[in-house]
């Protein structure tokens, strides 16, 4: 039998998506794969119904339906202050996932290196490897997940083609400060590297922290490839709608990657999503307030377990320290928790380059009653001390 490509042996299937299957098997509350169990705004669902009755059933323009790109450009400018040319600066993709893959394939030649902060969202390493590049890692250190500038300098000394910055970060919940981003930018400039950002949680940043758009930093637009998505901001992870925003010369190349990967994002979905992009500022304020209260509720539940955990500054993930439960492997702990406690999380080891076996990631993008039910189950952990 012929052998499949060797590059595929350098990474595993997604542990996050695997935990969703385990959660379903055990009927566990799924706090593993980060997606909401509540519906998007009613007006957005109505717009989808209208779009289904409209003339949007064939391919949209490969790099995005014009109406959608125009609305997107307005929305990006409204929040980041960056002027956006909808015709030259954007590629609409099938989710943030495709956006990241497009960015990586646009930036990297086979054999290039890409700096990835650890812990990291598991797609980045796979994206780099599928592009023929090699990820190199720089640790973010708890409790605030800051990086050591000397360590980052050493990574840049290896002449990487790009660095990936997930801000706010999944799974650490870290929001990078302007000064940290300027440090990254200065190094990227000195070594002429791209900065590929994943900003899908831009609207889930808990005060006093603030989101800084990397591409809006002085002199950074030309080297920034911003990846983003509508999934989290409008609670539509199943719509698979994302985008890449970058300088026109980069976008001209990115369009080619996107075109041959997927041709385009779904036409009726783009049409409907224009409604969301035009939501007023109050939508975003309420959206954030919703997540702030979910965060506070879920952290209260975690406090009741007696286990230590991180407090997210942004996004909707918490890393819980399960050392005291006495498992040798976090994968074993995560399975046990789904099966015996009835709550699924993701083993922390799938996010870290360093050997880490004492963390489980939970997310709290769930309705209050789901979080309360999960909290009730998790309370059992108070009395568990294995090993
Ligand atoms: N970004 C979400 C997470 O980290 C969802 C991942 C996915 O399956 N696309 O859980």
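-> sequence recovered:
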């Amino acid at each position: 039998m012929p052998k499949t490509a060797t590059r595929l042996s350098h990474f595993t299937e997604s542990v996050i998506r695997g935990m969703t299957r385990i959660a379903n098997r055990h009927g566990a509350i799924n706090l593993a794969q980060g997606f909401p169990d509540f519906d998007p705004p009613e007006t957005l669902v109505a717009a989808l119904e209208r779009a289904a009755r409209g003339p949007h059933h064939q391919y949209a323009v490969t790099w995005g339906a014009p109406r959608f790109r125009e609305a997107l450009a307005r929305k990006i400018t409204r929040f980041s202050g960056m002027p956006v040319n909808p015709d030259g600066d954007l590629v609409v993709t099938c989710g943030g996932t495709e956006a990241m893959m497009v960015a990586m394939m646009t930036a990297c030649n086979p054999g290039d290196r890409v700096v990835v902060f650890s812990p990291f969202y598991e797609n980045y390493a796979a994206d780099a490897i599928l592009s023929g590049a090699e990820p190199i890692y720089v640790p973010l250190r708890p409790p605030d997940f800051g990086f050591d500038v000397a360590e980052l300098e050493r990574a840049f000394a290896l002449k990487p083609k790009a660095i990936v910055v997930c801000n706010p970060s999944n799974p650490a919940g870290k929001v990078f400060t302007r000064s940290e981003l300027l440090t990254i930018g200065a190094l990227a400039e000195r070594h002429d590297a791209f900065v590929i950002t994943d900003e899908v949680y831009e609207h889930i940043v808990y005060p006093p922290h603030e989101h800084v758009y990397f591409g809006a930093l002085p002199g950074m637009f030309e080297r920034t490839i911003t990846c983003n998505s509508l999934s989290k901001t409008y609670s539509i992870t199943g719509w698979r709608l994302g985008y890449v925003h970058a300088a026109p010369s980069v976008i001209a190349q990115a369009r080619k990657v996107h075109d041959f990967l997927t041709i385009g994002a779904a036409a009726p979905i783009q049409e409907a999503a224009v409604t969301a992009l035009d939501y007023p500022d109050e939508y975003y304020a309420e959206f954030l307030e919703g997540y702030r209260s979910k965060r506070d509720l879920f952290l209260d539940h975690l406090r009741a377990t007696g286990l230590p955990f991180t407090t997210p500054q942004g996004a909707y993930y918490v890393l819980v320290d399960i050392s005291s439960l006495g498992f040798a492997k976090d994968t074993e702990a995560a399975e046990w928790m789904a099966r015996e406690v009835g709550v699924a999380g993701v083993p922390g080891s799938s996010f870290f380059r360093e050997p880490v076996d004492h963390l489980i990631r939970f997310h709290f993008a769930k309705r209050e009653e789901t979080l309360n039910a999960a909290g009730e189950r998790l309370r059992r952990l108070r009395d568990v001390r294995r090993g």
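The mean pLDDT is 97.
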